[in-house]
């Protein structure tokens, strides 16, 4: 016996050591990839790329408040100059004068290669006459006075042409020379981090740096800093998940240990009882780590529920075998427990097929955890526990429990009526039960969301909802494709379908385009001749246009714009964020702006799709993709839950071999689901994906209790079994119920559904399945 | 100190002859009574780079105290609207809005017109030294920028008119270019 125990212990220890080794080398993550699709469509891939590395995901918005506007402006300037020196930041914008000079100079220097107006006909006699006349007309305009000094060098108005095609969107307010909020009470900065949006460590470092530099900038506490952006959400969400994982596990472990100690009154039994739990939790993490490479924090957080579920098996073993002995226990109860394990397994296994990575991980984690806990209970626990263990006699609780069962049985009809009422209510409200989008699963608190909205509106930060995406084998091909798509988009602007768009080709035209623009420029003698004809009646004399002739000649002979020419300008950033090098290709992003005004903030999708058809550009509406993604998840989860349910029913049908028994076993489970969902709805909760999964788990977990009642056959359940079930149910409810304390919606939803659901399953099983006491 | 004293004495000397019959306060009171109206305008820009002035014409509508719409009809339709501190310019299909609070220099420039039209002496004196000549029927108000930044753009603004009606505004720019705006009120029906 000791040898057998020793061998079992050795095997278990080895497995545990191997497990610890795997876990030690596992990568844990608490980022948004939990929610991102495992097998994205082309549109979803754009979404994923944008979330992980897009420019918008790297933007942090900063507001400085307090003091007077001069103090805030000074702090804004100092903060910018300090952060600018740090490698963690790519760009710090605060609207300071001078920060745009480099951009303007670049545009002006290269205007004959950049301006879309540069075509042969633009430099014909007629073209020149018209362009110059336009520029002179513009001088009559109030805005024209700013252009007066440029006229001798740019009489054809190329700078105006370029600037007017740039973002005419809202610019932030300015106070004392730096950006300010709409009410002027806060100084605003827009910061782009070097770290990708998916690099939560990098984002955290950047945020800390901003805060520290600000504290160093502003001695005392006269001014305060507020910060928001995707990076902050990622950091906060990770911190929430981290603290929740330890908090929830601690609460659930302490509560369960307390229950076990109350039941066993023995430290040794209690420790042994936790053995399957520890093994299960470890096995879960190991399986996930080996299968997926990365373990999500939320998955580990789910461990608290697993503890409650896994501890059941050892409770059954200790409580039931203390009276019957191990062999009797194996013969009488193990088959029932095994069936319970299998039904739970079916439930969790259904999740494995989910395209929602987080869900698949939860499935694998629970599946392996439950199986490991059951195996340890069956094979390791008996030799370790020894035949002789002093178990506290709990049979005195039995009669009281039986009274409760009898009482419950009297409630059959009222409960059926209640269940019927609940189902009717759910049927009537079936269109209002569900939360419509993915934000239901977001860990971002309402307060943080509101701050973000406010800062975003104050600084007019881009939200990048609409985008056309192009792939090409190399940079030149990518830029040419961007120019082709740009032509189609220009037509959409003219038609008022879109308000505008950004393109990397605007500041970095393809070599082909640059060559064709150079070719459009006439030689100096020819240009002068044409000017003399064109300007014969014009108030602008050709002899004042020496600068123009020289600039055109420079552009014609040596003009060339490369990515390097953009260095030192803010435009370089714009180009880099819209023209991306991928491992085997180049991607172009063309963010589209809605028409605005009375045409609203949405872009009509169909005309854009039609216009871009055949150009190789893919039009993506990010919001729509998010909603589609969530609906796909929801749809898939519905199918998986149904499949899991069917598998459980099939398994029970094969084992029970009786339609009547099957019906009786399923009835309390279904009623439990209906009652829980109806209560949640009445409590004003909008259901989402994880509630649905919770419904499946009520069936998967709850079936264990129902089966005990069913398997007792014609006889009444004995006191000890009844006690073991109540204790096991209590621990399960504690495990899942703890999740209901969580601020992480994914965990909360499962907790609030399965916790009460498991208890209801036991009560209803007692009501409908147990034999009537005669 | 002495310089400043001399400066203010000089100012006093210039202002005194006018004040006997007609002073700035009186003009401002008159202008403030003007509640708005519609006018045609002809604007001529004399630019050194051009051989001929650039001429634009159109309509102006003023609603006291801070709304001014200037609709240019020739050579190109363009609307400039000044509403409180927001200037919007609409030309072709493009629309541009500028918040003057963000542009202190432009604000000072706009205040020269707005302050005159609304008779807001305080707003005018914030950025300009005021000199008045003539009488109520035919007055000339000269604004000299007191801020170096504004002076680097505009040397002098001369506003002339009769009673509470502004007739001509002339800007003399630092580079010698000139803009003359003639205003011809349309009688209200």
Number of strands of chain A: 13
Query: What share of residues of chain B is helical?
Result: 25-40%
The overall pLDDT average of chain A reads: 86
From the alpha carbons, calculate the radius of gyration of chain B and give it in angstroms: 17 Å
Q: Give me the side-by-side strand order of the main sheet of chain B.
A: 6-5-4-3-2-1-11-10-9-8-7
Instruction: Write down the overall geometry of chain A.
Output: elongated
How do the strands and helices of this protein lay out in sequence?
The complex is a heterodimer of chains A (774) and B (189).
Chain A: H1 2-24, E1 27-29, H2 42-53, E2 59-65, H3 69-84, E3 89-93, H4 101-109, H5 111-114, H6 125-140, H7 158-165, E4 173-175, E5 178-180, E6 186-193, H8 200-217, E7 224-228, H9 230-264, H10 267-292, E8 294-296, H11 297-301, H12 303-324, H13 326-332, H14 334-351, H15 357-385, H16 398-410, H17 412-428, H18 446-459, E9 466-472, H19 475-494, E10 500-501, H20 511-520, H21 524-534, H22 546-558, H23 570-578, E11 579-581, E12 586-593, H24 605-612, E13 618-621, H25 622-656, H26 659-682, H27 689-711, H28 719-739, H29 745-768
Parallel strand pairs in A: 1-8
Antiparallel strand pairs in A: 2-6, 2-7, 3-6, 4-5, 9-12, 9-13, 10-12, 11-12
Helix pairs in contact in A: 1-10, 1-15, 3-8, 6-21, 8-9, 9-10, 9-12, 9-28, 10-12, 10-15, 12-13, 12-15, 12-28, 14-15, 14-25, 14-27, 16-28, 16-29, 17-26, 19-24, 25-26, 25-27, 26-27, 26-29, 27-29, 28-29
Chain B: H1 2-21, H2 24-33, E1 36-46, E2 54-63, E3 67-74, E4 78-83, E5 86-91, E6 94-99, H3 104-118, H4 121-127, E7 128-135, E8 138-145, H5 148-151, E9 154-162, E10 165-173, E11 178-186
Antiparallel strand pairs in B: 1-2, 1-11, 2-3, 3-4, 4-5, 5-6, 7-8, 8-9, 9-10, 10-11
Helix pairs in contact in B: 3-4
